[in-house]
Fold this protein.
Amino acid sequence: MRCVMIHYNEIGLKGKNQPLFLRRLESNLLRSTAGAGVRRVEQRSGRMVLYLGREADWEVIRGRLRSVFGIANFSLAERVEPDMAALKAAVGNALEGRTFRSFKVAARRAYKQFPLTSEDINRELGAFVQGQTQVAVDLEQPELTIHVEVLPRDLYFSFGREAGPGGLPVGVSGRVVSLLSGGIDSPVAAHRLMKRGCQVVFVHFHSFPFLDGTSRDKAVELAQLLTRFQYQSHLYLVPFGEIQREVVVGAPAPLRVVLYRRLMGRIAEQIARREQAKALVTGESLGQVASQTLENLAVIEEAVGMPVLRPLIGSDKEEIVQQARALQTYDISIIPDQDCCRLFVPRHPATFSSLDEVRAVESQLPIEKLVQMGLDQMEIQAFEFPEGSREPGTPGVAESREG
Ligand code: ATP
Ligand code: MG
């Protein structure tokens, strides 16, 4: 029977939260592979096994698993009866038509009562494969590695392994609200938090109709793209132009960006409370632009009553660009748009703002009313991955467990 053998990151999964983490990984695996022919998932001796139906399309499943956080590595595997004759026959069959110049067998026993040790299995299966194919064993750099896993009721073998994305299963770390601009950095920042197990809620501020609607369209595309890592997303689209118009009436031009950011922070915080999210996430990187000096970051953060996470704070633009390319968000991010923070702002905004100065300006502004305006006018979009994955008929989590 075909299945997928999945190894997860054990270090992140220790302690009393482990059962919870594993249940989440199970449901994420099922959700991400919905519609692709996975029958069920089982926790087996420190691994996860996906059992595949006949119709299952491995390439589709493989593509999906590459985005499931918590997976250390995975491989298409075959399950056989727990004896060496069955194993040899099945491996022999599976190798037919496959060419390789060297190989090794790497067996691991989760079930120590199996009559052969891992070494015995390596030797016996190795000799068999060598006899059948006339290919030499190379323990250092084999072209093909035949993995064998010995579990209590059965054996599994697979050829090679593919690295998973690592991280923690999305959902185990709670929720955060990501301030998603149309730019390169913020989608990468959101992805970092997903990788640490967060469910990310997106908030985008746009100045349509004062500016064109491109940034909004980009945010929609980015949210959709990032949903493949977390299966369902909410994107809050907050019209910001009207709010900005009121800000500029009372605010000196160099301070405007910081004032906008503080308002964004306050509105995002309210959205976070509604979504039961515990922190905000931004794509800020120290010194990248005027608003990202330590002084300005402190002033922006002061307006927010919850942690502001900045996973890219120490990253160079080049590293961020590389990650954005890998995520495929880059091509969307570089589409030219009119960022809302450029509205009514001088070419060179202040790199240093004092909190006193900012507070004095804000005391002349109807801050609460402006926040409420954003909340009243925002629009929410929902995304899911894969499309239609919440339809009834998604396979259930198998009951059987092993210690
Ligand atoms: P990015 O590439 O993410 O736009 P940036 O280098 O352009 O970042 P800024 O424009 O200063 O930097 O924005 C800093 C952060 O503030 C962004 O990473 C994002 O988290 C948030 N932000 C900026 N503009 C918006 C917006 N219109 N809507 C939501 N969040 C925003
Ligand atoms: Mg930007």
Summary: The two ends are 23 Å apart (CA to CA). Confidence is low (pLDDT under 50) at residues 391-403. The CA atoms of residues 85 and 125 lie 10 Å apart.
